[in-house]
User: Fold this.
Amino acid sequence: MTKDKGIIDIARQVIDDEVEALVGLKDYIDENFEEIVEVICECKGRLIFTGIGKSGHISKKISATLSSTGTSSFFMHSTEAFHGDLGMIQSDDIVVAISYSGETEDLLKTIPIIKKLGCSIVGVSGNKKSTLAKVSDYHQLIKVEKEACPLDLAPTSSATATLVWGDALAISLMNKKDFKPEDFAKSHPGGTLGKRLLLSAKDVMVSGDDMPIINCDELSKDVIKIISEKGMGVTFVKDQDDKIIGLITDGDIRRAIDKSNYFFDMIARDFMSKDFISVTPDDLASQCLQIMGKKKIGCLAVMQEKDLVGIINQKDLIKLGI
Assistant:
């Protein structure tokens, strides 16, 4: 029991230490940070992050966050830079070099070469007198009083602070660039937001031979057959000129059976609904789902002028995660 309590205390102390480091981070968000944001915002090239070890992992995450929020970025391992990766850098890029000590040898020896290529260097370290700070064009100080590691060796609090600094950088750039949900969706087309903001009716509709359509003079038994075969719970009704004149749902069939003893002598025109709700191919799929929910219907006609070009099924939209 005592041992478990010790583990809990240790874990809570780690959290307290890292929270303290984050509170302290706010003191380093100053004119230097603002200048870095301005420089990156004006950058005509890409933002390249580099680092080694834990700093490399943090660099990858910050780079990924920036790429998905409107700032083109990628990660370059400092050691691999000497074996061909420097070829990825162009003169109008900005390189963000991260090293808490500011003295990482493999990282520092890439700086002169990167500068010769014409790139600006943003150094991020925990020592404003470090070599990295001195050779950088811009420097961000991120200093923690102590690591959460009891030996004060493993980069824990410093790594967390740098990661949060990266989030602050990304959000600041989003605000500076007026980055909107629509822009975010373009980077995340497979996510829920991307589907809601990018997919249109034409992307999700059923079309061609898969659409349930029946002639207006077809018998009721054939109506039931096509609704069953197509599996949408509806069929559209067309006249002799192939113009869509109505819709029959499962509910229409049930009501017709209740009202008439001669249901199987009836034709489609006798019990179809003349009014139906339609959308255009360019309407957003998310809007189509809202319409279906509001009207309590399972399908929508997709009309191009007066022609039926597709059918949207509510179940299909839900499966897509819209």
Notes: The chain has a mean pLDDT of 87. The first strand starts at residue 47 and ends at 51.
